[in-house]
Design a protein that fits this description.
seven-stranded mixed beta sheet, elongated, alpha/beta, Rossmann fold
Length: 397
């Protein structure tokens, strides 16, 4: 473990997606991630295709660089083991509802009593203190609550983004919070409790793009940036579709010059960005008519030569063979001890000194229970007794 967090230990009390995304980021940075799972395992262990039970694709992609420990936190011995581990780590990340953690005696105040330097991060659906604080939160619900499902063309029905956007972005927020809190502790010696609410996190992103004229008091115009909400979509070509992003005055002039329609930029509706923003329907109708006249490959060659931002639309299958991703080391194919050959996405950033990278494959349920409990100071006979009582279990159980 040579990443930037190689001396950090994290107790990962998370399941599903938001928490595991956060802790996998920390694990790839070199932190020792101890994933605490209930006897039935993380709820996404069987979500999607798999070669063996409990090791489905989505679990594999969000739980590498971790060790799995199974504890029954409803049993006193399981709770005691959690607290013993919590006293020895730097960070606790949790996405169980705060009231449930309090009932178990595992909330921040309980952990801070035995480890005052702890960084304790709660990923919650809604921030505490509001009327929605105790509501359940899943990606679909948060996308709807934060306005994403409504932001489509008026003729389209509400729908969700086709990725777990709210879960995964909330995980990024949580990982970022851990890093900031660890820096604060390094400077001051102080631990702290951090709450990362999914609803507020995603609402902040949506409103930053779409608050529009409601940003000002009193309002100076309507909300919703129409290009994103209803106009923003690939352009049809003669044989497919094309993504082109033209923004600045220079880019628009270069585009219309390249396609032989330079006079369009003489129209006062389109000559400046402020004017174009109010006339996007008319502008995009002209662009759509132009692009429909030629094939995708022809347009890519012509527009790239004119330095116009353009790309083909990739499918999931074509991404796996994308020349750029291959060249930059984005993918890694490795042999998992039980699941065979696995393809993973391992490099989203490049570091000159402490390159993050997977430290271990996604674990089987309880694969490291015995190992971690012994490291925590339990005697072998104590671990055996916990296994016999069902307070802990491993792969052999």
């Amino acid at each position: 473990m040579n990443g930037p967090l190689k001396d950090v230990r994290v107790l990962d009390m998370t399941g599903a997606l938001s928490g595991p995304v956060a802790t996998q980021i920390l694990g790839d940075m070199g932190a020792d991630i101890i994933k605490i799972e209930p006897p039935e395992g993380d709820s996404i262990r069987d979500l999607g295709p798999s070669r063996h039970g409990g090791m489905a694709a989505m679990f594999l992609h969000t739980n590498r660089s971790k060790r799995s420990v199974v504890l029954d936190l409803k049993a006193e011995a399981g709770r005691q083991a959690f607290m013993r581990l919590a006293a020895q780590v730097d960070v606790v990340v949790c996405n169980t509802r705060p009231k449930a953690m309090a009932r178990l005696g595992l909330a921040y105040e309980h952990v801070a009593a035995v480890n005052p330097r702890i960084v304790y991060v709660n990923i919650v659906g809604y921030g505490q203190g509001g009327p929605c604080s105790d509501k359940p939160a899943y990606d679909d619900l948060i996308q709807a609550a934060a306005g994403i499902a409504s932001l489509h063309a008026p003729q389209d029905p509400p729908r969700y983004a086709p990725v777990a956007f709210a879960d995964r972005v909330s995980g990024l927020f949580a990982a970022n919070a851990v890093l900031g809190a660890l820096y604060h502790r390094a400077i001051t010696g102080e631990g702290q409790h951090i709450e990362v609410p999914m609803f507020e996190s995603i609402a902040s992103l949506v409103l930053a793009d779409h608050m529009g004229g409601l940003t000002f008091e009193p309002p100076i115009g309507p909300p919703v940036f129409e290009r994103y909400a209803s106009i923003r979509r690939p352009f049809p070509t003669r044989d497919g579709s094309l993504c082109m992003m033209v923004l600045t005055d220079r880019q628009w002039r270069a585009f219309f010059a390249a396609v032989g329609r330079g006079e369009v930029m003489d129209d006062p509706r389109f000559s400046r960005m402020a004017a174009r923003t109010g006339n996007l329907d008319a502008l995009y109708a002209i662009v759509g008519e132009i692009l429909a006249a030629r094939g995708t490959d022809e347009w890519v060659d012509l527009l790239e030569a004119a330095d116009i931002p353009v790309t083909r639309i990739e499918s999931i299958e074509s991404l796996l063979d994308h020349a750029h991703l291959r060249a930059t080391g984005f993918f890694e194919t490795a042999d998992h001890p039980t699941e065979g050959r696995i393809r993973s996405m391992v490099r989203t950033s490049t570091w000159s000194a402490t390159q993050p990278a997977p430290t271990r494959p996604a674990p089987r349920l309880g694969e490291h229970s015995r190992e971690v409990l012994l490291e925590a100071g339990y005697a072998q006979e104590e671990v055996d007794a916990m296994f016999a009582a069902g307070a802990a279990r491993g792969c052999e159980a």
